## 1
Amino acid sequence: MGRQSSIKQLAPDILEQLHELLRDPRITQLDATARINEILEERGEEPVTKSAVNRYKLSIDQVGKAIRESREMAEIWIGKLGAAPQSQVANLTSEIIRNSLIDLSLAIQKITVGEDDPEVVAGAVKMIRDLAISHEKIEKAVSETTRREEKLREQARKEALEEAAKVAEGAAKGAGVSDAGIAMLVKAITEAV
């Protein structure tokens, strides 16, 4: 049976101090462990091990790396699609989120296998639920954007046909076409598919 990491059991203020120590490149993990253990000793609490601090630092680094990679990919795609229609960008975003959900689900399965800490499992379930809700909202926004763009294209097409009908009507009158012929021509243009 797995048990919760001793690092995750630290009081929030001590955990924040550990974060600060681990972010400082001048402080080694051994020094960070020693400093945190001094605080814990003053409070009469159990010390943390070097290996627990190392595992925690590795998990923080993995998350940080994933965030940096995600930002880099976003910058690349924004650079490529900066002038692309919104629906293309929205579709790409939706696809990235779908893939991220799959990756996250697989990662959570690896983390929670054999994990009997209800907080870890509940946190994983909540994270997936929140991402699914976000994904649903993005899908809805993509659909709305696509519908809006279709309406705008249809409106522009109608306006272009009406303008073409006016131009054709003027040209037909100038050429001496009968009123019935002009009406038929205008109708044919404005009802074009």
## 2
Amino acid sequence: MDVAKRANVSAATVSYVLSGKEELVCRIALETRDRIAAAVKELGYVRNQAARHLRLQRTRRICTLLPKIGSPFADGIARDVDAAARRRDYSSLLVMGRDFAACQDVVAQVEAGLADGIVAEVEQFSPEEIELLFAPMIRAGKEVLLLHPPLETSGFSSVRQERLPAFRSIIRRLVADKRQRFAYIRHAQSHDAGRSPALEKILAEHGLPPARFVTGAESRASAVAILNTLLQEPELPDAILVQSDASAVSVLQALARLGIKVPTEIAVAGSGNAEEGALCFPALTTIGPSRPSLEEAVDHLIDRIEKIPGAESRTFAIPWSVIDRESA
């Protein structure tokens, strides 16, 4: 190897230094590292990453699988995965798959060598479907990080958003503010994770009428259409909960166009703590994490890919709280 000859060291020493792995580089004396760096510069050597990846049977790529893209929540996930991957000299690949068949196709491609691991949003699937989708990946030696599984998982690392306590808190606060007629605009294609039963229970405890449950929060247009339907009913809601900040902002805009005062006549609360909610008028009261970041969990996924000792599968819990603003 020309670099080894120029630096008067062994090929193995050069390989250690060029690997970039701290646990290997730290074994080499600083003066030796400087000689190797000088030899690399003099010879114009460029590492053959493709050959290195083939030798290690790794792509140094993470696949991010989301049911949809273009929302602040999805964009934040993609951004966090990419930032963590790049910090570890990996790249990220973003793909979309909403239904089981589409996700199964993506998983099969990752198994076949598309990426070393996958970060997947799975809230829309049952535990049985999750097992069917991702257990083969583990057997194939690929690593998996699940986002928002409906139940605790075994054998997979996961990120769980602790939403339910915050959801209960915003309901109780609205009840304390004398709100009596609740509507809840939910997602159509995800598990409710106990939120609807929690709303029903709290309202019943206070002797209030049952909430009006409607689906369509995943689309701004459908949320506004639902709002227009609710406003045609004999008794208007005085509190509207929306399972998406983006759709909640659209509800606020629609109410403003109709001349309905928020929160005086109708209080509105969202979910997710998206930046858009803080910037709209009135600013959106919501529930969410104060600092939504997946970078620690993605770091852990890469540790597992690289077989770093102690990187056992684990669950990352992200607590949510009520973010008080002007709309409720």
